[in-house]
Amino acid sequence: MASPIVVGVDGSPTARKAAEVARDLAVKLGSPLHVFTAYVKDSVTPMKVGTEEWVASTADDAQETAERVVRNVVGDGDAVAASGQGAPADALIAYAEEIGAQLIVVGNQRMRGVSRVLGSVANSVSHNATCDVYIANTYAD
C-alpha cells in the first residue's frame, strides 16, 4: 500500500480546492487520504438553550471541519478526518510525520502580494516538511 497523502483544510473555499486536488492525487497514486485541520488552542465554552446543555470546543470544531470536508469532497472514497493542536503549519507537519505521509497538499492562499511577505501555511510547510509538498493552485476557477 502506498504511503498516505495529507491535506490541510480550514473550512475555506480555497482549502476545499486543495482537498479536491489531494483527493485526485490519492486516487491516481492509490494512496490513503488524510484530511487534517489544526486548532491553535482548545477553548471550551459551556452552552445552554432551554433545558439543553452542551459544551462547544475548538478541538471538536476542528474535527468537524475535517469530517465535513471528507463527506463533501471525498464522498464514498476512503479518507481519514483528523485534527490536532498547534500552529497550522506545525500541526500539519507533525501529523504528516506521525502517519508517515509521502505528501502534504496545501493551497496557495496568501502566497501572493503583501501576504506572502507576512507568511503563509503553504510557505511554512514547504520550507519545513520532511516529506514532499504539493502546493495546489486555489486561485484558478
From TrEMBL:
SUPFAM superfamilies: Adenine nucleotide alpha hydrolases-like. InterPro entries: Rossmann-like_a/b/a_fold, Universal_stress_UspA, UspA. PANTHER family: STRESS RESPONSE PROTEIN NHAX, UNIVERSAL STRESS PROTEIN UP12. It holds the Pfam family Usp. Residues 1-135 form the UspA domain. Gene3D superfamilies: HUPs. Belongs to the universal stress protein A family. The lineage of its organism: Bacteria, Bacillati, Actinomycetota, Actinomycetes, Micrococcales. This is UspA domain-containing protein.
